[in-house]
Amino acid sequence: MSAAREMLCDTARAVFADAQEGGIAPIETAGFGLLLVSEADGGFGGDWGDANAVLRIAGVAVPDLPVTDLILSGLAPVPDALRAAATVGLMAGAAGQALGLSIEHVNTRQQFGRPLGKFQAVQQSLAVLACEVAALDAAAAAMAARLDATGLDAEAADFEIAAAKLRANRAVGVVTAIAHQVHGAIGFTREYDLHRVTIPLMRWRSMHGSDAYWAERLGRQVAGLGGRGLWEALTARAE
Amino acid sequence: MQGFALYPFDPPGDSSALRTGLRRWLAEHQPQDDVVRRANCWASFDPDFSRALGAAGYIGMTLPARYGGGERHPLERYVVIEELLAAGAPVGAHWIADRQTGPLILRYGSEEQRERYLPGIARGETYACIGLSEPGAGSDLASVRTTARETAEGWRINGQKIWTTGAHLSHIMLALVRTEEGSERNAGLSQLLIDLDTPGITIRPIIDMAGHHDFNEIFFDDVLVPHAALVGERGQGWKQVTAELGLERSGPERYLSSHALFAALIDAAGPDPAPALAVLIGELAAEMWTLRQLSMSTAAKLAAGEDPMVEASVVKELGNAFEQEMPRRVQAVVECGWDDPDDLARLLRALLIASPSFSLRGGTREVIRGIIARGLGLR
Ligand SMILES: Cc1cc2nc3c(=O)[nH]c(=O)nc-3n(C[C@H](O)[C@H](O)[C@H](O)COP(=O)(O)OP(=O)(O)OC[C@H]3O[C@@H](n4cnc5c(N)ncnc54)[C@H](O)[C@@H]3O)c2cc1C
């Protein structure tokens, strides 16, 4: 991560922590609405990679605040596909947090005289969860790269947005199921933080395009490319 | 491993020119194989094709020029192998030598071994097999029992390897053997580079459930190989094999083996597929695209000189799942008879039968998940 993005993330973490009490106001005041506005227009001049990094933090710290709308407000008009793209960033952050909480929990909670994480069945489940998080992160990063290469043109990045939102949606089922399973009853309480990421994940799965919506859309696009054409498009779009 | 560290895939030079050049070359030189041979094509042996590919400079790409290599960047090689796999080219003959044995010889081998083996590997003429598994050492590789005793004349090898892919078509085996008497588990192991025409070696076919002869069992009966057959450091075999497995697990073959089926499905669906079929194609495309990102990032990490064992395992786990699910899901959605003669039906049948092996070879699903769990700090 570049030093500038590192700083941006530090700011986001601090501001979003305040926003947990103060609502969206501190986030507005800190200027996150200008993140994607060019420097010439008095904005921060960030790219989608920056937005993605900030949204990952928002997905954990302030999943219920309209940070996506705020960040996208710098662009006009905003196609719904960009809202889907932004949601992927939130989802990547929340899924990563679900993994982190799960690892911490199985390392501390003891049963049968050992931490749960020492049981192979638990290890194998968490490996599956980690793979989903890795897939989601990779999809979000590749989508960001395409958006930045096309100057945030959602139409030119249609394949990547569809694929990334679909992949993120599909990760939700596995991530929430395994994270809750390894937590046991404590993860089902209001007091414990797991639901702060799993309920938003469930919600984001249905927002800005369900699995079926994006799958059918992407499927039609790929059908139009043909079998060989898919490979040619995949490689050409990333080069 | 909090968050998969993503490495940008940034090959030097003009990779789209590299791609186009190879596509043009393939259009001229790729044999008109049956579509079923194009699936899982890293198991398709075609020495003529391998030689032609070697002559064109597409094998041993990363090796130094003095050994016949192309001195190209590992990510340029990645571009080439993903193109070959996506095209379904018959790369099986040289696959293992190019992917892991050559690089291992370069890294750990003696000057004599490099000069002796690498030029043939780069020409697409010298083929290698992987001698790890034994009847008593599958997932538990550290229980290898094949022994090599050092004598005045050289190493005397006794024991048995099994499941050795392509041994009957290979010239050399890079074998993991126990060189230290009385040693246990992963201590006391070494790697030997064995010429397979050495007296005392018996190679017997094992026919797989598809009816193919791909893997073998190999018996070593007092086989004498020179002292110079030792690769790298005596007793360091475990460490070297771990590096070898990193090369074995990280490549695009972990998600492109079934690509011929996906392409056939898309072509059979036509430009205006029924909704259920469009959904299936979309889901498979999203997964494939994601896997490609993970695989490229892993290759970039490896190319940066870092150890991508955990990332490679993530690619293998998700890639295996993708490739095993694909034929099952196609079967569930597409109406086609088990014995139908068309390409889609034959590919489907071939991959349904081949796919159980995907999560066995190169490390079982459970072993791979164990490696990921270790990366998470759970073991
Ligand atoms: C097509 C194919 C090609 C191959 N090619 C080669 C080759 O070229 N060279 C070579 O050396 N080998 C090769 N192999 C062998 C392969 O590496 C082994 O099959 C693999 O390591 C598993 O060993 P095994 O078959 O003895 O299964 P086992 O180790 O007996 O395992 C059987 C099952 O039990 C599970 N299991 C075992 N131990 C544990 C544990 N501790 N915890 C949880 N689950 C466990 C395994 O995951 C697996 O699901 C090939 C295999 C196949 C199928």
UniProtKB/TrEMBL annotation, chain A:
Pfam families the record matches: Acyl-CoA_dh_1
Positions of the Acyl-CoA dehydrogenase/oxidase C-terminal domain: 86-221
Listed InterPro entries: AcylCo_DH-like_C (IPR036250), AcylCo_DH/oxidase_C (IPR009075)
Signal peptide: none
GO molecular function, one term: acyl-CoA dehydrogenase activity
Keywords (A to Z) from UniProt: FAD, Flavoprotein, Oxidoreductase
PANTHER family: ACYL-COA DEHYDROGENASE (PTHR43884), ACYL-COA DEHYDROGENASE FADE28 (PTHR43884:SF20)
Protein name: Acyl-CoA dehydrogenase, C-terminal domain
Lineage, highest ranks first: Bacteria, Pseudomonadati, Pseudomonadota, Alphaproteobacteria, Sphingomonadales
From TrEMBL, chain B:
Domain Acyl-CoA oxidase/dehydrogenase middle: 129-223
Record's keyword annotation contains Oxidoreductase: yes
Pfam families, A to Z: Acyl-CoA_dh_M, Acyl-CoA_dh_N
Keywords for the protein's UniProt record, in alphabetical order: FAD, Flavoprotein, Oxidoreductase
The protein, known as: Acyl-CoA dehydrogenase
GO molecular function per UniProt: acyl-CoA dehydrogenase activity; flavin adenine dinucleotide binding
Cofactor: FAD
Any one of the GO CC terms: plasma membrane
SUPFAM superfamilies attached to this UniProt entry: Acyl-CoA dehydrogenase NM domain-like
Keyword Flavoprotein: yes
Domain of life (superkingdom): Bacteria
Domain Acyl-CoA dehydrogenase/oxidase N-terminal: 16-125
InterPro entries cross-referenced by the UniProt entry: Acyl-CoA_DH_CS, Acyl-CoA_Oxase/DH_mid-dom, Acyl-CoA_Oxase/DH_mid-dom_sf, AcylCoA_DH/ox_N, AcylCoA_DH/ox_N_sf, AcylCoA_DH/oxidase_NM_dom_sf, Mycobact_Acyl-CoA_DH
